[in-house]
Design brief:
By secondary structure, the protein is α/β, with parallel strands linked by helices. It has four helices and seven strands. The protein starts with 8 loop residues before the first strand and ends with a strand.
């Protein structure tokens, strides 16, 4: 019963407007990223990939997803990359047309909760791997929690 949403979504809850997005594609200007993202979301490419035995695809997928993290020189390089992505997300949120009360993103595996100059709350959720974090909206405000 879960709806999978590709891309962003603006929803209204209890009179508050939320901009929800995973966060990897917002404000991204890299042509290489856009190409790979389009390839991964292409139905024909997905069908071809699923036709290959998991003995080959699972190790390939694991190596591919690990390669981006392993390509950094260490924790300082990863933190610098996260900071660059945060700059893109903040710029996107600050320049977004229309009234939004909460901009909520994932992807970066860090926790951010700050007020933007436009008055919106800017949130990056963290993760369920190392931070065990989540956000909950009680009808009045968005609050972080952990499990």
């Amino acid at each position: 019963g879960i709806e999978v949403v590709d891309g962003s979504r603006v929803v209204e809850l209890s009179g508050k407007r939320f901009f929800l997005e995973h966060g990897d594609g917002v404000g991204h200007k890299s042509a290489g990223f856009r190409f790979i993202r389009a390839l991964f979301r292409n139905r024909l490419a997905q069908k071809l990939f699923s036709a290959v035995h998991p003995r080959w695809t699972v190790p390939f997928a694991f190596a591919w997803s690990s390669s981006s993290r392993n390509g950094y020189g260490g924790k300082a390089d990863i933190e610098a990359c996260v900071q660059r992505h945060l700059v893109h997300l903040r710029e996107f949120a600050e320049s977004y047309p229309g009234e939004i009360d909460y901009f909520v993103f994932g992807h970066l595996h860090c926790i951010v909760d700050e007020r933007l100059a436009r008055g919106s709350q800017f949130v990056v959720l963290g993760d369920g791997i190392s931070h065990f974090s989540y956000c909950e909206f009680d009808g009045r405000e968005l609050k972080f929690g952990s499990y």
